[in-house]
Write a structure and sequence with these properties.
disordered N terminus, globular, 15 helices, single chain, two-stranded antiparallel ribbon, Rossmann fold, alpha/beta, 12-stranded mixed sheet
Length: about 475
């Protein structure tokens, strides 16, 4: 595959796109990308095309949104283009790139003070699609604000800045204007992504240029309503983590409200304490693994405050045990903050200080309580959607996802059935609905299912993105 020399295009390349010329800003430093040919930690030239850069969004382009673009390793001219948002809100897209669906990850080995090494991911979703990973909102990853007023963060700002980013990026990459476009993400991204998709759709209908060839969206273990975390209790009961008696008592005493518990309700608090004690040794995001809360910042959920108090400071803020999955996150901090890595990624000097995987300690306005109505609107317009759930995630469980899907009241086209990985093993269960929605569980997966089950999730994604059913193993 020939390598791109730059993402900045000459005037002549736009001569057939006069409307785009009105918006073309690639000559400005803020909207040009650069190819990364070598990355510290990987020997030799990269076996895939990686571009990094900034796009100015918001008033006066005062938010400099950083991105990583990886061209499809198959057929970039024809393969779909996906914009991927990592959840949080405030977690860097490098989490999605390095630990979920991108072409490389950090090699898990005992830290010895030197820069960690990288390994290639054979199950990268870039095998079948081009992907843009964006650090959003501002102050996430390498995205920064040029002014104090531009440093505000919230749901609606995230929505507006993301759609601005995508249109500007496509203007500067016109060869992808005809590619099918999907928006994807997981966790908290389940709130803004349906809104982003709807706003892009409405802009297309109004004739805004360039027109984005929007086809649908993908969400994994995605938060949809503020009540989703209430399903952790029935999930725990279904998984055999709590007894029948405690489950019945919780239902009776807490009246099915398990997050915003009235501190005066002594019976509900008693039952919740029993529940938390029983599950305190588990990773709430992946119950097959032990609790490892290294560098875990409280997001305001009462269970998390409780658990943080249960673990010694050295486990939370120091080095996690090697057996913890968070050890890879620990290593990533040293890799990303290495001066040679930041130089290779073309990070602007002085733009930010230390890179953090997540920035939960910076204020964020949660203004959209539910994305349910947006799912309804998008399905009426015929957009495709893949909604998947790692079935061992307690925080946003498949119980919660199935509940809001039921409320959509779609007709079932293909009823509940297993789907299989490339080796013929059951990888999960799936159901398809009218209005072009596919729901799937990933057997043995957690909150970020591709992190736990990469081979299975690649099979799921590659089939769905190719308009195949998940149970079709012909590809």
């Amino acid at each position: 595959m020939g390598r791109l020399s730059s993402s900045c295009y000459s005037y002549s390349e736009f001569i057939l796109l006069p409307l785009l010329l009105l918006f073309h800003t690639c000559f400005e430093h803020a909207t040009c990308g650069k190819i990364v040919q070598f990355l510290p930690g990987i020997e030799g030239p990269l076996p895939f095309v990686l571009e990094t850069g900034y796009v100015g969004v918001g008033e006066g382009k005062n938010v400099q949104a950083f991105y990583y673009f990886i061209e499809s390793e198959n057929n970039p001219k024809e393969d779909p283009l996906m914009l991927w948002l990592t959840g949080g809100p405030g977690c860097s897209c490098l989490h999605g790139l390095m630990f979920e669906i991108g072409p490389f990850t950090v090699k898990k080995e005992e830290y010895n003070g030197s820069r960690p090494n990288l390994i290639l991911n054979p199950h990268s979703w870039t095998k079948v699609s081009s992907i843009i990973f964006i650090d959003i909102p501002v102050s996430t990853g390498f995205t920064y604000a040029k002014t104090k007023s531009a440093a505000q963060r919230g749901d609606w700002l995230l929505v507006r800045q993301t759609r601005q980013f995508l249109r500007k990026w496509l203007i500067n990459h016109p060869k992808f204007l005809s590619n099918k476009v999907y928006i994807g993400g997981d966790s908290y991204s389940g709130i803004p992504i349906p809104v982003i998709v709807q706003e892009i759709s409405q802009e297309n209908e109004k004739g805004l240029r360039p027109r984005i060839n929007l086809q649908g969206y993908i969400l994994g273990n995605a938060l949809t309503t503020e009540r989703d975390t209430n399903y952790a209790i029935p999930f725990s009961h279904g998984m055999g983590l709590i007894s029948d008696e405690l489950y019945e008592s919780l239902q009776k005493n807490c009246k099915r409200e398990y997050v915003n518990v009235d501190p005066r309700d002594v019976f509900c608090l008693r039952d919740m304490n029993s529940f938390m004690e029983l599950t305190s040794g588990l990773d709430l995001f992946y119950i097959l693994e032990p609790a490892c809360y290294w560098n875990w910042i409280d997001e305001g959920v009462s269970w998390r405050r409780y658990l943080i108090n249960k673990y010694p400071p050295e486990e939370i803020n120091g080095r996690p045990p090697l057996y913890c999955r968070s050890y890879e996150h620990f290593l990533a901090n040293f890799w990303v903050n290495d001066d040679n890595v930041r130089k290779a990624l073309h990070i602007r000097k002085g733009s930010i200080g230390k890179w953090h995987r997540c920035s939960f300690d910076i204020p964020y306005k949660k203004e959209i309580n539910s994305s349910f109505e947006y799912h309804v609107n998008l399905s009426k317009k015929g957009y495709r959607s893949l909604i998947y759930s790692g079935d061992h995630d307690m925080m946003v469980s498949f119980f919660a996802t199935q509940a809001w899907i039921r409320y959509l009241n779609y007709s079932i086209v293909n009823d509940w059935r297993p789907w299989h990985d490339a080796n013929g093993r059951v990888a999960g269960y799936t159901r398809t609905y009218s209005n072009r929605m596919t729901f799937a569980t990933v057997k043995g997966g957690g909150h970020t299912a591709p992190e736990h089950k990469p081979e299975e999730c690649f099979a799921m994604y590659s089939r769905w993105i190719s308009n195949m059913t998940l149970w079709d193993t012909t590809k």
